[in-house]
């Protein structure tokens, strides 16, 4: 855990830290499961078997999500779920890599939607059988 936080440059929110240390290293949760903190491979495969949040963080292009956003899981196509590591209550963000156009003077924040006011609420929505997309998609562009 300390190594992952060191590589991120930020501490994980307390709830997420507890999930990774007391429940498991990803693979469960909204959208098919949270990313792991450590790269894993399926024996005899050359591809990773699950997203690794610290690898995603290290491979971001200069125009990608802010370093203070922690990758939670993929959302399909060009969508990705993140949690803010620095904002109060750690809101969950839905980012669309194709949701902004640099040629129009936009930046990565233009591809961003707030999905939940806190990590706790986002996870609770999933655990209670709700749809984590509802709040993110209800917002006007």
Offer a quick outline of the entry.
This protein has five helices and four strands, in the order αααββββαα. It has 141 residues and is of the alpha+beta class.
Key structural traits:
141 residues, 5 helices, 17% strand, four-stranded antiparallel sheet, globular, 4 strands, alpha+beta
Question: What does this 3D model show about the protein?
Answer:
By secondary structure, this protein is an alpha+beta fold. The chain contains five helices and four strands, in the order H-H-H-E-E-E-E-H-H. The chain has a four-stranded antiparallel β-sheet with strand order 1-2-3-4. A hairpin with a 7-residue loop joins strand 2 (79-84) and strand 3 (92-96). The protein is globular.
């Amino acid at each position: 855990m300390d190594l992952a936080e060191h590589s991120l440059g930020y501490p994980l929110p307390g709830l997420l830290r507890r999930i990774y240390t007391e429940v498991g290293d990803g693979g469960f949760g909204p959208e098919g499961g949270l990313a792991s903190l450590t790269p894993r491979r399926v024996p005899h495969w050359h591809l990773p078997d699950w997203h690794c949040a610290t690898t995603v963080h290290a491979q971001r292009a200069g125009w990608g999500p802010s370093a203070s956003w922690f990758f939670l899981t993929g959302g399909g196509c060009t969508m990705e779920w993140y949690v803010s590591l620095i904002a109060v209550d750690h809101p969950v963000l839905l980012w669309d890599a194709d949701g902004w156009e640099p040629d129009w003077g936009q930046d990565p924040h233009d591809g961003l939607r707030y999905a939940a006011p806190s990590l706790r609420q986002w996870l609770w929505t999933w655990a209670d059988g709700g749809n984590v997309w509802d709040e993110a998609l209800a917002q006007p562009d």
